[in-house]
Structure to design on (177 residues):
Protein backbone atom coordinates (compact mmCIF):
# COMPACT_ATOMS: atom_id res chain seq x y z
CA UNK A 1 0.00 0.00 0.00
CA UNK A 2 1.39 3.43 -0.92
CA UNK A 3 1.62 5.88 2.01
CA UNK A 4 -0.11 8.55 -0.11
CA UNK A 5 -3.30 6.46 -0.22
CA UNK A 6 -3.76 6.46 3.57
CA UNK A 7 -5.13 10.04 3.81
CA UNK A 8 -7.50 9.28 0.93
CA UNK A 9 -8.80 6.15 2.64
CA UNK A 10 -9.31 8.08 5.87
CA UNK A 11 -11.18 10.80 4.00
CA UNK A 12 -13.41 8.21 2.32
CA UNK A 13 -14.12 6.58 5.68
CA UNK A 14 -15.09 9.93 7.21
CA UNK A 15 -17.29 10.77 4.20
CA UNK A 16 -19.08 7.41 4.42
CA UNK A 17 -19.62 7.73 8.15
CA UNK A 18 -21.13 11.16 7.56
CA UNK A 19 -23.42 9.77 4.87
CA UNK A 20 -24.66 6.91 7.06
CA UNK A 21 -27.37 8.35 9.26
CA UNK A 22 -29.41 6.53 11.82
CA UNK A 23 -28.70 4.20 14.68
CA UNK A 24 -25.64 2.07 14.98
CA UNK A 25 -25.85 -0.78 12.52
CA UNK A 26 -26.26 -3.73 14.85
CA UNK A 27 -28.57 -5.88 16.86
CA UNK A 28 -29.42 -4.31 20.23
CA UNK A 29 -28.88 -6.74 23.10
CA UNK A 30 -30.16 -4.16 25.61
CA UNK A 31 -33.51 -3.96 23.84
CA UNK A 32 -36.68 -5.59 25.18
CA UNK A 33 -37.37 -6.74 21.61
CA UNK A 34 -36.28 -10.37 21.13
CA UNK A 35 -34.19 -11.62 18.22
CA UNK A 36 -36.21 -14.17 16.25
CA UNK A 37 -34.45 -16.78 14.10
CA UNK A 38 -36.02 -18.95 11.42
CA UNK A 39 -34.28 -21.44 9.11
CA UNK A 40 -34.70 -24.75 7.31
CA UNK A 41 -32.41 -26.52 9.82
CA UNK A 42 -30.91 -25.76 13.23
CA UNK A 43 -28.27 -27.38 15.41
CA UNK A 44 -27.57 -26.30 19.01
CA UNK A 45 -24.35 -27.29 20.75
CA UNK A 46 -25.18 -26.11 24.26
CA UNK A 47 -21.79 -27.21 25.63
CA UNK A 48 -19.92 -24.93 23.22
CA UNK A 49 -22.59 -22.22 23.21
CA UNK A 50 -23.00 -22.35 19.42
CA UNK A 51 -26.22 -22.50 17.44
CA UNK A 52 -25.94 -23.12 13.68
CA UNK A 53 -28.83 -22.33 11.36
CA UNK A 54 -28.81 -23.29 7.68
CA UNK A 55 -31.11 -22.85 4.71
CA UNK A 56 -32.84 -19.50 4.10
CA UNK A 57 -31.91 -18.16 7.52
CA UNK A 58 -33.59 -15.01 8.77
CA UNK A 59 -32.78 -13.13 12.01
CA UNK A 60 -35.16 -10.33 12.92
CA UNK A 61 -35.19 -7.86 15.79
CA UNK A 62 -37.81 -5.18 15.32
CA UNK A 63 -37.17 -3.81 11.84
CA UNK A 64 -33.54 -4.99 11.74
CA UNK A 65 -33.13 -8.05 9.50
CA UNK A 66 -30.26 -10.38 8.60
CA UNK A 67 -30.74 -13.02 5.89
CA UNK A 68 -28.16 -15.62 4.88
CA UNK A 69 -27.57 -19.20 3.79
CA UNK A 70 -25.95 -20.03 7.14
CA UNK A 71 -25.83 -18.19 10.47
CA UNK A 72 -23.90 -19.13 13.60
CA UNK A 73 -24.81 -17.59 16.96
CA UNK A 74 -22.18 -17.68 19.72
CA UNK A 75 -23.21 -17.37 23.36
CA UNK A 76 -21.19 -16.98 26.54
CA UNK A 77 -22.35 -16.76 30.14
CA UNK A 78 -23.11 -13.07 29.47
CA UNK A 79 -25.39 -13.99 26.54
CA UNK A 80 -25.21 -13.61 22.76
CA UNK A 81 -21.81 -12.19 21.85
CA UNK A 82 -21.19 -12.92 18.16
CA UNK A 83 -23.14 -13.55 14.97
CA UNK A 84 -21.52 -14.88 11.79
CA UNK A 85 -23.48 -15.05 8.54
CA UNK A 86 -22.51 -16.53 5.18
CA UNK A 87 -24.50 -16.15 2.00
CA UNK A 88 -24.48 -15.47 -1.71
CA UNK A 89 -24.63 -12.76 -0.45
CA UNK A 90 -25.71 -12.43 3.17
CA UNK A 91 -27.80 -9.30 3.63
CA UNK A 92 -28.27 -6.88 6.56
CA UNK A 93 -31.10 -4.33 6.53
CA UNK A 94 -32.11 -1.66 9.04
CA UNK A 95 -34.24 1.49 8.71
CA UNK A 96 -32.56 4.83 9.36
CA UNK A 97 -33.53 6.83 12.45
CA UNK A 98 -35.56 9.50 10.67
CA UNK A 99 -37.69 6.81 9.02
CA UNK A 100 -36.70 7.81 5.49
CA UNK A 101 -35.01 4.92 3.75
CA UNK A 102 -32.95 2.05 5.05
CA UNK A 103 -29.43 0.80 5.28
CA UNK A 104 -28.96 -2.21 3.01
CA UNK A 105 -25.62 -4.03 3.41
CA UNK A 106 -24.47 -7.14 1.56
CA UNK A 107 -21.37 -9.34 1.67
CA UNK A 108 -20.45 -12.99 1.34
CA UNK A 109 -19.54 -13.00 5.05
CA UNK A 110 -20.95 -10.72 7.78
CA UNK A 111 -19.75 -10.78 11.40
CA UNK A 112 -21.25 -8.88 14.31
CA UNK A 113 -19.21 -8.76 17.53
CA UNK A 114 -20.85 -7.47 20.71
CA UNK A 115 -17.51 -7.16 22.53
CA UNK A 116 -15.91 -5.08 19.75
CA UNK A 117 -19.17 -3.26 18.97
CA UNK A 118 -18.35 -3.85 15.34
CA UNK A 119 -19.91 -5.16 12.15
CA UNK A 120 -17.55 -6.55 9.52
CA UNK A 121 -18.59 -7.14 5.92
CA UNK A 122 -16.14 -9.31 3.97
CA UNK A 123 -15.79 -10.30 0.32
CA UNK A 124 -17.87 -8.38 -2.19
CA UNK A 125 -18.97 -6.00 0.59
CA UNK A 126 -21.43 -3.25 -0.22
CA UNK A 127 -23.39 -0.78 1.93
CA UNK A 128 -26.15 1.33 0.43
CA UNK A 129 -28.29 4.00 2.09
CA UNK A 130 -30.59 6.46 0.34
CA UNK A 131 -28.63 6.21 -2.92
CA UNK A 132 -25.22 6.53 -1.25
CA UNK A 133 -23.05 3.49 -1.98
CA UNK A 134 -19.83 2.12 -0.51
CA UNK A 135 -17.99 -0.95 -1.83
CA UNK A 136 -14.83 -2.72 -0.78
CA UNK A 137 -13.40 -6.15 -0.13
CA UNK A 138 -13.66 -5.60 3.65
CA UNK A 139 -15.74 -2.94 5.41
CA UNK A 140 -15.58 -2.51 9.20
CA UNK A 141 -18.22 -0.46 11.01
CA UNK A 142 -17.58 0.53 14.62
CA UNK A 143 -21.15 0.82 15.90
CA UNK A 144 -20.17 2.79 19.01
CA UNK A 145 -17.85 5.38 17.44
CA UNK A 146 -19.76 5.32 14.11
CA UNK A 147 -16.53 4.97 12.15
CA UNK A 148 -16.32 3.10 8.87
CA UNK A 149 -13.06 1.79 7.45
CA UNK A 150 -12.66 -0.16 4.24
CA UNK A 151 -10.03 -1.80 2.15
CA UNK A 152 -9.85 -3.06 -1.40
CA UNK A 153 -8.80 -6.55 -2.37
CA UNK A 154 -5.22 -7.61 -3.08
CA UNK A 155 -3.80 -7.16 -6.57
CA UNK A 156 -4.33 -10.56 -8.22
CA UNK A 157 -2.75 -9.64 -11.55
CA UNK A 158 -6.00 -8.42 -13.09
CA UNK A 159 -5.66 -5.09 -11.28
CA UNK A 160 -5.97 -4.11 -7.63
CA UNK A 161 -9.40 -4.09 -6.04
CA UNK A 162 -10.23 -0.64 -4.85
CA UNK A 163 -12.67 0.96 -2.44
CA UNK A 164 -15.52 2.67 -4.28
CA UNK A 165 -17.93 5.27 -2.96
CA UNK A 166 -20.87 7.12 -4.51
CA UNK A 167 -22.38 10.03 -2.57
CA UNK A 168 -25.62 11.54 -3.83
CA UNK A 169 -25.95 15.33 -3.95
CA UNK A 170 -28.21 16.98 -1.41
CA UNK A 171 -31.76 17.58 -2.53
CA UNK A 172 -32.71 21.01 -3.86
CA UNK A 173 -34.78 21.81 -0.76
CA UNK A 174 -31.82 21.23 1.56
CA UNK A 175 -29.46 23.54 -0.33
CA UNK A 176 -31.81 26.53 -0.32
CA UNK A 177 -32.22 26.72 3.44
Amino acid sequence: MKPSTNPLRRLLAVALAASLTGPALAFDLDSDTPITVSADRARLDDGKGVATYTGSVELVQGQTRLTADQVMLYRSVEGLNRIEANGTPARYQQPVTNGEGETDARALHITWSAADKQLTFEREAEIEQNGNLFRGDVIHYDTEQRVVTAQGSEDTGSGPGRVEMVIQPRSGTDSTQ
